[in-house]
Amino acid sequence: MIGRLNHVGIATPSIDKAVAVYRDLLGATKIGEKFALPAQGVWVCFVDTPNSQIELIEPYGEDSPIHGFLKKNPAGGQHHVCFEVPDIIAARDDMRAKGATVLGTGEPRIGAHGTPVIFIHPKDMGGVLVELMETPKDAH
Amino acid sequence: MIGRLNHVGIATPSIDKAVAVYRDLLGATKIGEKFALPAQGVWVCFVDTPNSQIELIEPYGEDSPIHGFLKKNPAGGQHHVCFEVPDIIAARDDMRAKGATVLGTGEPRIGAHGTPVIFIHPKDMGGVLVELMETPKDAH
């Protein structure tokens, strides 16, 4: 079912400081503009590698779901892994049929790439928060 | 400097159980054989996606460096991110020149893909343990 590793989500207290690490220390050259996803409670910035992306996420607002993560990991750290799937509803139903817990209501939300996404509970995924994202129709 | 996102390293108390998650729940179809890297203190198993890989790692021996990680994260979790670089010695010297801490002696070791690797301390990388791996000469 899963396709490309679309991105690794990395939580940070400061996207500006994290961008400096990827640009100045690691020499990344393709770094997008920071933008807000208020419905998800995050600021987002993508750092491109030739085959995939790092998604830097910073809390947006008091209710951001990553405040808890940053409380445990004040310097930031790996937050989730995102795999592409061809059909998000089919993926959700498949996950549920296999007994995995889809977070929230299970209704897909629009993710940072403009396509619907769901998240699967880490308890079912070897301790890893897994995002499934419908492949953009015009991608690749 | 950094090139491809070669893999995401995911620590697990049991590669066999983690493989079942990727194969049976997520539907991954290209999963390698488990093998030992005694010098690194890990068992390794690669799960391929079309563009990258998940590297499952399980402790090998009493001195495995991931026992501590699993003590904090008993179910497993995202352990490191590995980027390819064209020349490991140049990458190491560049990291040091920029003030980043290379783990261990700084002498590259042979990693799971048979090419030299180094690890950069998370304190310099936004809380993320970063592996730099020399691109295999016959790759891509």
From TrEMBL, chains A, B:
Keyword Ribosomal protein assigned: no
InterPro entries (alphabetical): Glyas_Bleomycin-R_OHBP_Dase, MeMalonyl-CoA_epimerase, MMCE/EMCE_epimerase, VOC_core
Keyword Phosphoprotein: no
One Pfam short name: Glyoxalase_4
PROSITE patterns in UniProt: VOC
Family: Belongs to the methylmalonyl-CoA epimerase family.
Name of the featured protein: Methylmalonyl-CoA/ethylmalonyl-CoA epimerase
